[in-house]
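re: ur question from yesterday

yeah so i grabbed the chain u mentioned. its 308 aa long if i counted rite. heres the sequnce exactly as i have it in my notes:
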Amino acid sequence: HPFIKSIVSLNCSLKISDGFNVNWGGSMTKKKLLGEILVETGIISENTVIRLLARAKRYNKKFGAILLETELVTPEELVNALALQFNYKAVSNFASNPISSELTSLIPVDVAIENMLFPLNLEGKSLFLAVADPTNKRIVSNIAANHGLEVIPHVATRKDIISAISMHYHHKDLAVHHQKTILIVDDDELITTMARDILNNESYRTIVAANGMEGYKQAISEFPQVILADKIMPKLDGYGLLSALKNIPETRLVPVILITSRTEPEEEALAFKKGFFDFLTKPIHKVTLVTRVKRALQYYEHQYSFEQ
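ran it thru and got these structure tokens back, copy pasting raw so excuse formatting
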């Protein structure tokens, strides 16, 4: 069939799937391509699949990521299709389930956030693991080898996994939002303290991260509505942090304000070109900070009113 040939060709070039489902018992069974499953279940058309695969190839992104970005499938529809493709079970709404500290100790929070996975249960030597991306076999194999366990993946939405991580690693319930949250990412303690004090006095909830990598993890687990990021930071600078945030569904629409000591027009133009919502120059002034944060919050609320 021309459609099957088209998506096989595109999938091969994208390395979306190797055509086999490897289980840890050693057997291999032929599996369908994700595009085939979505067409067969009537979620999208053949032509849409072909266009989306071409777009994924052009932007060097995974097919699943493009599906979510374009909102042509819901996260739940993608999970069900991936579960069919890999012959795994789909799981949902597990954040409120009781989880022991012994279970969470098997997977450090950094690993859970970076790879979007969560330990569901341990029965004997079998670890039941929620994963957002079942193609990430390397991390699953590493967990199995490090702990001498058989890992049994279950597919889940990123939202469910993030909720479980927040509940059981950070002991926070994402369903409860009492204050608008601002994340301040800067390695200068004087800057973060001043910005935090100003914003706290405006009744905002503030979170502080001392480097870009910590800021990235906080952005995923804390769901801030606005992020302030210094241009120059250890581990991941402001531009690198912005790029990372734009590549994941949960944070791609969150406005990020660049903090910089430079005021040249070239710096401003570059910041806007890269996707920053706004910028602040040092030293930071209270009126400017509050005004730009309020404007960013208005933008966030406008964007997410269309997302819901």
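noticed a couple things. DSSP finds 14 helices and eleven strands in the chain. also The CA atoms of residues 142 and 209 lie 29 Å apart.
anyway ttyl
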